[in-house]
Structure prediction request, 294 residues.
Amino acid sequence: MKRMSPVVWLKALLLVALLLLPLRMGEGVNAGVPLIGAAEQLAADYCGRTLERATAAYVSAKVVDRIISTIQRAEISVTPVGVGLTFAPGELLAAANEAIERVSAALFTVMGLMLVEKLSIGLISWLCFKLLLPLALVLSLLRHLTGGRLPRLAPVARFLARLAVLLWCFFPAVALAAGYVESAYLDAEYARQMDENAGEEKRLDALGKEFSESMPEEQSVWDQFKGAAADMLDVRQKAADMLDYADRMTDRLFHVFCIFLLTTVLIPLFMLFLLRKLLALLTDGYRREMTHTA
Prediction:
């Protein structure tokens, strides 16, 4: 019987180690596994941190949306000397309300992406180390045990092994790249935008309450005649002030969304582009090997 080479024994031991490796699917369940658990924790921390920040920005956007929507429903109706007049100052905030709703929807999308990515981390590790790599080792060992009579198994095994490594490296690589960009620049910018937005939110809320309290009540004909114009001008000025606050808050929240767009979409897409290029190289190499062994 032909003696097996040390490479075959090494592959067999690696296969046994992978089969015995206590990997499971789930968030944080592989924390005790060396290297794999650390990489999963790195990616999970990044996703959790980003999800927390996106949620805070989303809540802020919904608060502004609620305040503006409440004000938009207010109307001033007066009937001096029998002539009916109706003024809806909240109409000035229609454009700001539409803009803040779009920003809210965009932030909600970011939250969904981060949640899906966070839930996928444990699945990717199990897929790579419990399915793809073991399958690659089985095919490689089968080729050795058959004396090379199945040459097509070798390129398939190499392709599966490389695919497993690339897939597993994707999330930690994104976390490292995005984390570096955040720590170098974006963390301070995010904190500045959210702090300023919190102050604007309090002022907008106070102005909204003042606006509601200043709405004219039912008055006599002569009181309405004397005060209608003054009341309308005063309320219109308050609505204009609130529009200014709402515009600034919308700009800041959109700025925050752009930060998330960079870290949660553009950087992962760039890493995915690199992954796709590497997979294309692997696929081309696999096809050349299959053609050569045919």
Observations:
- The CA atoms of residues 28 and 41 lie 7 Å apart.
- The chain has five helices and two strands.
